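re: ur question from earlier - yeah i can do the single chain one, its not a big deal. heres the input i used so u can compare w yours
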Amino acid sequence: MESNPVLEFWNALDEPLASLLAQGFTGRTHLLKIARAALGTGEPGFNPLAIDALVTAFAESPLDGVFAGQLLAAPEVAGLLPEDTRTALLAVKEGWREPRSAEYLNRLSLGKDIPRIKRFIERQAASDPENLFWSSKALFLLVDNDPDWVDSLLPNVTEGPLGHALVTAREQVGRFRGDSCDPDSMERAAGNTYGNWSSLHGGLRLASEGHRDEAVLWLLQAFSHAPWNAGLLLRLHDLLGAVDVERSALPGRICVMLYSWNKCDDLDATLASLYGADSDPDLMVLDNGSTDGSDTVLDMWQERFNARREGAFERVTLPVNVGAAAARNWLRHAALRKEYDFLCYLDDDVALPKDWLETLGAAVERYPERRCGAARWWITPTRS
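and the output i got, formated as tokens:
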């Protein structure tokens, strides 16, 4: 019987480390937990896993000077990292300075007035152009879907340690902008700074662009270096088995639920996305005490949904913000009284593919005993 190195690796893991890896290989806090657990085993064989977790954490936060300094200040960590990674971390650390206006920016951010925040960052970056602090804050605002604005605030550096560090920042901008992906160029530009990152993210981007065969080759290359990446393993499983193209209607009545507070533009875009989808589930929206014109957005969409199918759109309006957990529970209890077969929680700032619910339906059909989740929405059977 031939040996299976992937199974051998997973079978050698202790339960705490295996549990962490099964939860995914992304998110800086989670990646640091994985690195700590791997190093905590005292087994040199797990050092590559710890290194990959740390390098991936850096790739996800490439312009955070505080984080770069923390990694460099930990001798048990810095000594393991490749030289290219250490020099890139040092370039970020030395180029990042917290300005005196940082506290004001924090207060400004609480108001969630994105245009005002962007204008403030622009002014500060113009007066302090060498400070990566402002580039890092601009990169965070990619969520506003203005990649050209973010790109304009990144340093115009492509060579040397800082140029290497900026590769993942530019990849994030390119992904939001819809640029085509070239993993070879990413790999050349980053050098050895981010290890396996170019193969992994290049493959994922190619898959999202429909280049399945090429994506599989890059992802297999990535997996050969990172058999601990459960998310990568599952993505390969879906691509090789064509699982990701399966579609199926959910078997039963569905209620899509979302709550919102003072995000009228995002809410409008999300409801437009829902309206244009292939499926037509019931929709329940809770306005969590908004004061920004969300009521006008909800009036318009309630009329449109209910004109298409009477009773499709139900609305709850609260006078004050009761918090996320209470809003979610409020919606759940209201929906359970109507005996739906599936309840689907949705964020208020998503752009959904037209077949999003059929994608979830295929997952439910394939794994009927499971709950199936995704990054921005998840669906829960109401009965076993």
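Confidence is low (pLDDT under 50) at residues 375-380. not sure if urs matches, ping me
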